[in-house]
Amino acid sequence: MPTTNDIVLRPRFKKELNEHNEVVLKAFEDSKKEQSEFIVTRLDNHVFIKFPKKEQQFWTPQLHLEIDEIDDKTSMLHGLFGPNPTVWTMFMFFHFIVACLFIAFGAWAYSNWKLENDFALQISIMILMIIIWVALYFAGSIGKASSKGEMHRLNDFMNQIIAKEKS
């Protein structure tokens, strides 16, 4: 599960499989009946692997797989680890609000500077927005770090299903 960049908050990967995509998708579909450690959901060529509700916390990751057909004997698996989509949307919304406030106070500071009025308050709030943005980034990094073990469990489960299909 190596990523090319340690800054990534939602690690992605891809893997070429020596099976037709429907065979692999069927293996994930069948895994629902064979185990109870994960919730496996399939929608077209997408597979979502999650932890049961009772095991989920705020930053609990889930694994989204997209398995596309290349030809009759191979397929491409695209994977994405991330928190619950609701959590991710809220997290990105906070980033958006901070960026908008930074731009708005920057415009206000520029206007006051051009009008030769005091603009210390606006600059202070812009600095506060930078601090909040950095805090949001580190909160995301801490969330990712705290869920690495769970990400490895999801990855191991995925590899187990794929390996089972090969044999």
List keywords for this structure.
167 residues; 20% strand; five-stranded antiparallel beta sheet; TATA-Binding Protein; 2 domains; single chain; alpha+beta
Topology of helices and strands:
Layout: E1 12-17, H1 21-34, E2 39-43, E3 46-50, E4 61-69, E5 75-83, H2 85-114, H3 120-146, H4 148-166
Antiparallel strand pairs: 1-5, 2-3, 3-4, 4-5
Question: Can you offer a commentary on this structure?
Answer:
This protein is an alpha+beta fold and 167 residues long. The protein has two domains: 88 residues, TATA-Binding Protein; 57 residues. 54% of the residues lie in helices and 20% in strands. A five-stranded antiparallel beta sheet has the order 1-5-4-3-2. Strand 4 and strand 5 form a beta hairpin. Helix 1 packs across helix 4 and helix 2 packs antiparallel against helix 3. The two termini are 22 Å apart. The model has no long low-confidence stretch (mean pLDDT 88).
Number of helical elements: 4
Mean pLDDT: 88
Largest sheet: 5 strands, antiparallel
Strand order within the widest beta sheet? 1-5-4-3-2
> Helix and strand succession?
EHEEEEHHH
Low-confidence stretches: none
> What general form does the structure show?
elongated
CATH topology of the largest domain: TATA-Binding Protein
Report the end-to-end length measured between terminal Cα atoms. Answer: 22 Å
CATH level-4 homologous superfamily of the largest domain = Kinase associated domain 1, KA1
Bin the strand percentage: 15-25%
Q: What is the CATH C-level name of the largest domain?
A: Alpha Beta
| Count of discrete structural domains | 2
Beta strands, count:
5
Rg, alpha carbons: 22 Å
